[in-house]
Amino acid sequence: xxxxxxxxxxxxxxxxxxxxxxxxxxxxxxxxxxxxxxxxxxxxxxxxxxxxxxxxxxxxxxxxxxxxxxxxxxxxxxxxxxxxxxxxxxxxxxxxxxxxxxxxxxxxxxxxxxxxxxxxxxxxxxxxxxxxxxxxxxxxxxxxxxxxxxxxxxxxxxxxxxxxxxxxxxxxxxxxxxxxxxxxxxxxxxxxxxxxxxxxxxxxxxxxxxxxxxxxxxxxxxxxxxxxxxxxxxxxxxxxxxxxxxxxxxxxxxxxxxxxxxxxxxxxxxxxxxxxxxxxxxxxxxxxxxxxxxxxxxxxxxxxxxxxxxxxxxxxxxxxxxxxxxxxxxxxxxxxxxxxxxxxxxxxxxxxxxxxxxxxxxxxxxxxxxxxxxxxxxxxxxxxxxxxxxxxxxxxxxxx
Length: 400
Ligand code: KG4
Ligand code: ZN
Fold this sequence. Notes:
By secondary structure, this protein is an alpha/beta fold.
């Protein structure tokens, strides 16, 4: 593919507590993926404070865009268009991104793209870091129990070509210098599982930016349950990464929690019961303990037990949905998709022929690369639509 003269889509993402800016080319190769996290700002409150988050976006965003272009020698002439997350998310936060993107697109006479954040997450497995040959992993692909990096198809990665991760490197070297490697990718339609702090949904993804909801959570999102459990255990915010780390050192068998909504006829997810069961168990253990506190090993075992139940629910339903829809590919995206336990458990799933994809780690939690990459596949807004573009706190996966 020959690139147009303006090779980069500028992505802007401010739906929650990360100010993010990215440059992505038409092949989905990510030149810059800048994320300014506000974790330290919100950690002392144990969760995101919306008003504080929007103020921080206002301070951070324009300097970040300026630096992203300046530090990488990219001029506005090199920008094809501006893509911004317009929904769903915290309304004050979204508005900062949307108004900034509108003003920049208008000032520089660039097309504007309004992107649904959930569709952005679903697009993450199609992104490649610019130094992909060096970094080995475009994304993790689990096929028939084997984990591999996805290889350029030209280098011979076809059906059944699952190898070890070193294969990614060799393939990179073999096609070294090739400007346009064609990677093995999830096919459409496929089933997508979005697991983040705000969402737990299964969808049939028909094309980039087009999907239909299959199931959703009846109460807490899985990331939210992780964060709440971590808070009860005093493990800080956000809780996912710390629970994941401790789970790897603990025993999942010590506290066997019931897997939520595990019957075949129950399509939706539910995580608040699991969270409450954890809270009760923690309380009971503290009451039994002489010091009133929990020892490290017990905390690790609690984390491992909670994580095992959550993962089983996520994988059981996702694999069942993929089977039911008769698709070959299942993609797992969003902040919780970085979970190491989940990735390892996906490799143990026995579902012959099913390919399970996880994005490269930097494209799981909120980022602007997924917004810019997806926008290459969308229709730009007309000038009138661009001026009218508004942010929305709520947006279904089914739109588009
Ligand atoms: O996608 P994301 O950055 O933001 C939303 O759109 O919500 O997801 C953030 C969520 C948080 O709840 C965080 O605890 C969780 O993703 N998370 C994890 C891990 N890393 C982040 N959960 C489990 N294991 C992880 N390794
Ligand atoms: Zn998100």
